């Protein structure tokens, strides 16, 4: 059996507090987008993980999907499986590809073995794997808070716009992004700002990772500038970077940005 795991972007991201457990409290809005990995489960004599497509840093024995499967295997005495990942979601881009793969694998396991795990229970399993992993269980726009794994429904629909995502040829690790970030309480909570008209987002819907990441990687800041120059109504780096998205009210082509970057249109 196989499934298609999609990416996400962050519509705003406020880092509000450093936690005692090493995480940060934050406010963000997760929004699913149409870039997909393929996650497949095949019966096998031994449990293993194979990754194809985009190269993923680290050993496959540490892959988040393998950890997800072994967690459920221990709980439900599952037979061994071969996990095959066809990676298409850019890595180190703030798009949640690894978390998406693990969450969709949990749902795939639930379906394949008829485990009857509820959505809420699947979210709890996903929370053990990563801060944003639980989002992908329901996979619908949410206002996220806490360390990014507590959710409230977000009434937001960008389907009438044209979303463009640009991934430069640089990798921003999560640890690197957090190393130089500043935390502060926002003047207004993000769940209120997201209700404003999109035309007002530029000055208030910020990403607190941008200052430090832009300082280290000026080419990412330049992409954001070029998206606005091309007519974007709103542009922002997603998550801890390195991808930047632009929201347009018309279809666009950006050949200048295509020269050195991956560009995804109409997401």
Automatic annotation (TrEMBL):
<protein>
    <recommendedName>
        <fullName>4-diphosphocytidyl-2-C-methyl-D-erythritol kinase</fullName>
        <ecNumber>2.7.1.148</ecNumber>
    </recommendedName>
</protein>
<dbReference type="InterPro" id="IPR014721">
    <property type="entry name" value="Ribsml_uS5_D2-typ_fold_subgr"/>
</dbReference>
<dbReference type="Pfam" id="PF08544">
    <property type="entry name" value="GHMP_kinases_C"/>
</dbReference>
<comment type="similarity">
    <text>Belongs to the GHMP kinase family. IspE subfamily.</text>
</comment>
<dbReference type="InterPro" id="IPR036554">
    <property type="entry name" value="GHMP_kinase_C_sf"/>
</dbReference>
<keyword id="KW-0547">Nucleotide-binding</keyword>
<keyword id="KW-0418">Kinase</keyword>
<feature type="domain" description="GHMP kinase N-terminal">
    <location>
        <begin position="63"/>
        <end position="137"/>
    </location>
</feature>
<comment type="pathway">
    <text>Isoprenoid biosynthesis; isopentenyl diphosphate biosynthesis via DXP pathway; isopentenyl diphosphate from 1-deoxy-D-xylulose 5-phosphate: step 3/6.</text>
</comment>
<feature type="domain" description="GHMP kinase C-terminal">
    <location>
        <begin position="205"/>
        <end position="250"/>
    </location>
</feature>
<keyword id="KW-0808">Transferase</keyword>
<feature type="active site">
    <location>
        <position position="8"/>
    </location>
</feature>
<dbReference type="GO" id="GO:0050515">
    <property type="term" value="F:4-(cytidine 5'-diphospho)-2-C-methyl-D-erythritol kinase activity"/>
</dbReference>
<feature type="binding site">
    <location>
        <begin position="90"/>
        <end position="100"/>
    </location>
    <ligand>
        <name>ATP</name>
    </ligand>
</feature>
<dbReference type="InterPro" id="IPR004424">
    <property type="entry name" value="IspE"/>
</dbReference>
<dbReference type="Pfam" id="PF00288">
    <property type="entry name" value="GHMP_kinases_N"/>
</dbReference>
<keyword id="KW-0414">Isoprene biosynthesis</keyword>
<dbReference type="InterPro" id="IPR013750">
    <property type="entry name" value="GHMP_kinase_C_dom"/>
</dbReference>
<feature type="active site">
    <location>
        <position position="132"/>
    </location>
</feature>
<comment type="function">
    <text>Catalyzes the phosphorylation of the position 2 hydroxy group of 4-diphosphocytidyl-2C-methyl-D-erythritol.</text>
</comment>
<keyword id="KW-0067">ATP-binding</keyword>
<dbReference type="InterPro" id="IPR006204">
    <property type="entry name" value="GHMP_kinase_N_dom"/>
</dbReference>
<dbReference type="InterPro" id="IPR020568">
    <property type="entry name" value="Ribosomal_Su5_D2-typ_SF"/>
</dbReference>
